[in-house]
């Protein structure tokens, strides 16, 4: 990378290309004043105040591209995508940085075992992650830096830490640097402030944090950590203190020559944590609003990252946010535990919209239990949503444009939806608001008898349709937006030509029942007509009778 001016110019060009409106004057909604977010470091929820008015800088730890993405990885991506979308809806300019770890022990070891070049393996799986993000409607980051592209930044940062007296170089018997450099934890009195290592036994800890501590990596629970295996360099006898962690590592004998870099402190490659400090500073400068990632990164990765950034003389993130895990039968989903589900395999059986809904259907700090039932519920949610959008579109002889949906401001959304989103991005409450609006919309539709209905009634239906789609769009779920339209996932919400096979089958089956009920009513066999209606109701199907015939919707 070049100097800071080059970095600024690069960021400007990226903002222009990724978010064309990002350089216009921010018009932040008055609702932004009520946004409250949780902070891992303080264990409290507080009002969000940006460092720079009208702007939000977010750094989220991305993937270590060693193998295929699994549902646990993508849950974090979807969670922070929703958070980002809410900031955008509130009118903030958002600079969103998500890194790629394209060199580490796992990548090198797995590439060697498979007979691959390590960089080829990393790039292959980076592309697979990118496809997963795109397929599931995750917005592209403002910039997506790779670790291997920022070696000079990391080396400079390590040198600052050493110069400030918070790091040390391990030398051999001849006094020559070995390539191993460690952070001196004892020299940094603030170590532990993120994960509260030094808090007294009487300290208050909220229940969400307590659950996280019981389930996974935490310095509060001593012993082996099955979710977060120790970096081999962190177990070195050369360390001054067991808590010290690697900033730079001497290469293993098995490391290829092109996975080694020359530095003032010896040949080697970066430790796990240093890359994020270097890249967040490169693209977001000194101090930024939010650092995000999965809960399993809280310790040691984020604790170490906070310490080394501040020890280098830079401000760290003002707020740390962590998305909880995907669990399977109560156990954290993890490849090492053999319960990982790859995204390609899940998408082979379910539509991307349904998978995104299932992954983003609860608040980001809540554990998400992954099961067949969760996907069944997501399928049912899709049918209810698509059915309303389709019926409303037919009644109005067309859908509102995407431009109109996107233009709805935060204050134009229902109050129960915005209140939920401002409450630490409570997606469960926001989703409840969407279905409340759909129920109201279905009631309005039942009052329409034909296209000659009053302009007032049609305006009410149109307003309900715009509101529902705008709320869905805020969550990245408007069925008539990309990528769902291109994927054919709009299904029943579209014009009928791209309906899913499932919806077509359901439409046909229910249509037969409605036809049989209509015949029974014509023959004045009301007992049979009522029996058909009751059977459909028991299956979750609501019937609306009108002058033009009967229509159905999900309850």
UniProtKB/TrEMBL annotation:
Subcellular compartments: Cytoplasm
Cysteinyl-tRNA synthetase class Ia DALR domain residues: 416-483
Ligand binding (ATP): 335
Listed GO CC annotations: cytosol
Gene Ontology MF: a single term: ATP binding
Reaction equations catalysed: tRNA(Cys) + L-cysteine + ATP = L-cysteinyl-tRNA(Cys) + AMP + diphosphate
Catalytic EC class: ligase
UniProt KW keywords: Aminoacyl-tRNA synthetase, ATP-binding, Cytoplasm, Ligase, Metal-binding, Nucleotide-binding, Protein biosynthesis, Zinc
Family: Belongs to the class-I aminoacyl-tRNA synthetase family.
Subunit structure: Monomer.
Region of interest called Disordered, as start-end residue ranges on this chain: 217-241
Protein name, entry field: Cysteine--tRNA ligase
Motif placement: 'HIGH' region: 63-73
Chief place where the protein resides: cytoplasm
Presence of keyword Ligase: yes
Cofactor binding: number and manner: Binds 1 zinc ion per subunit.
GO BP: cysteinyl-tRNA aminoacylation
Enzyme Commission number, as recorded: 6.1.1.16
Motif 'KMSKS' region positions after renumbering to this chain: 332-336
Gene name of the record: cysS
Binding site for Zn(2+): 61, 276, 301, 305
Cofactor(s), by name: Zn(2+)
């Amino acid at each position: 990378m070049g100097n800071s001016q080059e970095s600024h110019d690069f960021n400007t060009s990226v903002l222009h290309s990724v978010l064309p409106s990002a350089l216009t004057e921010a018009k932040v909604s008055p609702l932004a004043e009520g946004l409250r977010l949780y902070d891992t470091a303080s264990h409290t929820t507080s009002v969000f105040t940006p460092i720079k008015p009208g702007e939000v800088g977010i750094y989220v730890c991305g993937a270590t591209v060693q193998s295929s993405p699994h549902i646990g990885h993508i849950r974090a991506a979807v969670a922070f995508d929703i958070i980002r979308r809410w900031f955008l809806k509130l009118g903030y300019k958002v600079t969103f940085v998500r890194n790629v770890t394209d060199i580490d022990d796992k990548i090198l070891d797995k590439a060697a075992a498979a007979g691959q070049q390590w960089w080829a393996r990393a790039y292959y799986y980076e592309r697979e992650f990118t496809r997963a993000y795109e397929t599931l409607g995750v917005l592209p980051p403002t910039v997506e830096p790779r670790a291997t592209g920022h070696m000079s930044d990391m080396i400079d940062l390590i040198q600052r830490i050493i110069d400030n007296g918070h790091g040390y170089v391990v030398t051999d018997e001849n006094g020559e640097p070995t390539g191993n450099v460690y952070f001196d934890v004892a020299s940094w009195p603030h170590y532990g402030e993120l994960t509260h290592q030094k808090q007294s036994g009487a300290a208050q800890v909220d229940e969400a944090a307590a659950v996280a501590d019981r389930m996974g990596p935490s310095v509060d629970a001593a012993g082996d950590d099955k979710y977060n295996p120790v970096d081999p360099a962190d177990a070195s006898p050369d360390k001054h203190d067991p808590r010290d962690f690697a900033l730079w590592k001497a290469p293993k004998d098995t490391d290829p020559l092109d996975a080694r870099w020359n530095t003032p402190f010896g040949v080697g490659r970066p430790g796990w944590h240093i890359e994020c400090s270097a890249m967040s500073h490169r693209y977001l400068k000194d101090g930024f609003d939010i650092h995000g990632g999965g809960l399993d990164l809280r310790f040691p990765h984020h604790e170490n990252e906070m310490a080394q950034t501040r020890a280098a003389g830079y401000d760290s993130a003002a707020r740390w946010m962590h998305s909880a895990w995907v669990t399977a039968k109560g156990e954290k989903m993890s490849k090492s535990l053999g319960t990982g589900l790859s995204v390609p395999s899940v998408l082979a059986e379910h539509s991307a919209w349904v998978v995104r809904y299932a992954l983003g259907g609860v608040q980001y700090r809540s554990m998400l239990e992954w099961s067949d039932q969760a996907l069944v519920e997501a399928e049912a949610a899709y049918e209810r949503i698509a059915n309303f959008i389709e019926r409303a579109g037919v009644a109005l002889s067309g859908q509102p444009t995407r431009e109109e949906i996107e233009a709805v401001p935060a204050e134009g959304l229902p109050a129960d939806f915005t209140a939920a989103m401002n409450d630490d991005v409570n997606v469960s409450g926001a989703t409840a608001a969407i279905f409340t609006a759909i129920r109201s919309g279905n009631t309005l539709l039942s009052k329409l008898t034909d296209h000659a209905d009053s302009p007032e009634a049609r305006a009410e239906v149109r307003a309900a349709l715009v509101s529902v789609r705008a709320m869905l769009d805020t969550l990245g779920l408007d069925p008539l937006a990309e990528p769902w339209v291109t994927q054919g996932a709009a299904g029943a919400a579209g014009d009928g030509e791209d309906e899913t096979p499932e919806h077509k089958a359901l439409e046909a089956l229910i249509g037969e029942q409605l036809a049989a009920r209509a015949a029974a009513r014509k023959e004045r066999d009301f007992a049979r007509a009522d029996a058909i209606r009751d059977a459909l109701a028991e299956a979750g199907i609501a019937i609306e009778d009108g002058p033009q015939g009967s229509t159905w919707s999900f309850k």
